[in-house]
Write a structure and sequence with these properties.
Helix content: 10-25%
CATH architecture: 2-Layer Sandwich
CATH class: Alpha Beta
CATH superfamily: Integrase, DNA-binding domain
Strand order of the largest sheet: 1-4-5-6-7
Structural class: mainly beta
Oligomer: single chain
Radius of gyration: 14 Å
Number of helices: 2
Distance between the termini: 40 Å
Number of domains: 1
């Protein structure tokens, strides 16, 4: 699957559709694969956290829905669930 950029897949900038969720990959930075945070187009702190698979470089080991928020001036993260089990349409009501 090696392409022009050394096997790194292009990540969507924001999650708009289910196709973007499936295409999400970890980011390749400074010669190593690292987790990627890909935000939802609606905002509100919702994002898809994509972790790399060590045995298959460039592929995602897990895709988790998370929401960033502040409580008493401290940054917090709420883990909603894995992509595939929890669909994006069920995740968005957490924003309201």
């Amino acid at each position: 699957m090696a392409g022009k950029n050394g096997g790194a897949c292009a990540n969507p900038k924001q999650i708009r559709t289910d196709v973007d969720c499936r295409a999400a990959r970890p980011k390749f930075d400074k010669g190593a694969w690292s987790p990627a945070k890909i935000s939802d187009v609606t905002g509100g702190g919702l994002y898809l956290f994509v972790t790399p698979d060590e045995s298959r470089p460039g592929n995602a080991a897990s895709k988790l829905w998370r929401m960033a928020y502040r409580f008493h001036s401290r940054q917090k993260t709420y883990s909603i669930g894995p992509y595939g089990t929890v669909h994006k349409t069920k995740v968005r009501p957490f924003l309201s």
